[in-house]
Amino acid sequence: DFCLSRGLGDVYKRQIFSNEVFTNYDTSNSTLPDNKIRNLVSFNDTVWMQTDSGLSQFYNGQFTHYTDTNGLLTANITDLEADSKGNLWIASFSGLSKKSGNNFTHDQSRKVYDIGINNGDSIYANVNVSGIVNVANPITAELYEGTNWTTLRDTSLVGFIPSAKFYSLNNGNIGITGSNGDSYLVNNLFELDFYDLPDDQINSTAITSMDQNLQGDIWYSFKPGFYYDAGAVYKYNGSDYE
């Protein structure tokens, strides 16, 4: 089985595909509090959804919803990720929260824009501002091990990544994209390998996601832009973009 969200404008639906049949859920036929699904994260048979109304959980055919009245720091979530143990990590401007079973714990010391989790369950977080700055001494990217925060500095001299977005990649690594159309893979602690995306009938700044498979291929998706720019999927095999 798999799940996805589809949208046209600001209206989104959640879909479950099982046994060659789609089942669609929205506010008209379920207890979903909001049709604007911004993010989906799954672990085993549980799916969590980031909406404009907070956090929704789908398990065993049932929806459960969370806001600042029953566990969350705030209903205004900025990102979701699950670690290898099935804990859900919830980022917001109010802090970083962990949902373990039915229990929530919070760290309110950081304003968290975005997170990614590697295969060692280390949490990479974009804090304080939306970009990552590696010049001077601002703290904009940090590593969280569940208790302590460690400031990250790029050792390959990448100066600035505007509107940075972390990705928990399928092979266990961490990826980063910026609104300037650049992308990076994180090697070692925070050494960034740079990838220059082509502008071949697509707008490289319109990137919506990236992932890397076990064979090392990097996949990118792009939304349609204005005029001639098309939506697209790119595959990079280490030497060529297709």
Summarize the structure.
The protein has strands at 2-8, 11-18, 21-25, 37-43, 46-51, 54-59, 62-66, 77-82, 88-92, 95-100, 103-107, 112-117, 123-127, 132-133, 141-144, 149-151, 160-161, 165-168, 174-177, 182-187, 191-196, 207-212, 218-222, 232-236. By secondary structure, the protein is mainly beta.
Distance between the termini: 28 Å
Q: Unreliable stretches, pLDDT < 50, 5 or more residues?
A: 6-11
Spatial extent as radius of gyration: 18 Å
The largest β sheet comes out as: 4 strands, antiparallel
Q: What class, by secondary structure content? A: mainly beta
Mean pLDDT: 89
Q: Please provide the count of β strands.
A: 24
Strand content: over 45%
Major beta sheet, strand line-up: 4-5-6-7
Helical content stands at: under 10%
SSE order: EEEEEEEEEEEEEEEEEEEEEEEE
User: Which outline best applies?
Assistant: globular
Task: Write up this protein.
This protein has 242 residues and is mostly beta strands. Helices cover 0% and strands 51% of the residues. The protein has no helices and 24 strands. The strands form seven sheets. Strands 4-5-6-7 form a four-stranded antiparallel sheet, with no helix packed on it. About 2% of the residues have low confidence.
